[in-house]
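Researcher: Next entry in the queue.
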Amino acid sequence: MTGIIVATDQELSALTEIMTGTKKLQIHDMTFYLGKINSTDIVLTKCGIGKVNAARTSQIIIDKFCVEKLINIGAAGALNKALKIKDIVIANKLVQYDFDLSSLDGTEKGEIPKIGKYIYTDSELVKQCKKILLDNLDYNVTIGTIASADRFCSDINEGEQIREYFDAECVEMEGAAIAQVCMLDNIPCLIIRGISDTPNGNNKTDYYAYCNIAAKQAASFLSKFLD
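Model: Structure for this entry, 227 residues:
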């Protein structure tokens, strides 16, 4: 079974719309949706926004459903100025850009003890994603670094600094936490993000205008991947 985690209602709806044979299961305060996308058995849930929610949900879905792999999809804000609304970013590695022990022990920003600066996704799953790029897609797909933090990045200068320091393509608020739990539990992980806003100073406005589009684009790519 494949586990899928999203953060928001928009991202959840984008996936439940393409699921079949859906059944609901309640665990703690969370609803899990069991069914199929294409012919793949999946369990889907919404974790809520932020890294703590994402990490907690990842461990629950791994423990309760014994998933073979865990996928996170959703929206993200572009850091790379070449990215446009509806483009897709697939993480080959992630970083928690708000994790900073540099003033304590001189380590680099983002470096987590016993984890490292970057958390890598499953190379085989990323390789499978590359096969989809052979199709005639009407949007661009970039494979690279995704940066996560417990804040919404809307400041152009901060975005440029994150881009320069971590060579990150986009920012969001859950992916690196999910990837870290998967790494610790030895579960293959894949992070797929649709671009909802770009570094133009209007990120908040753009996010609310385009988050549904970004979520549906990421869900569409996931469907192709599972097929």
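Model: Residues 2-226 form a domain with the Rossmann fold fold (CATH 3.40.50.1580).
Researcher: Noted, moving on.
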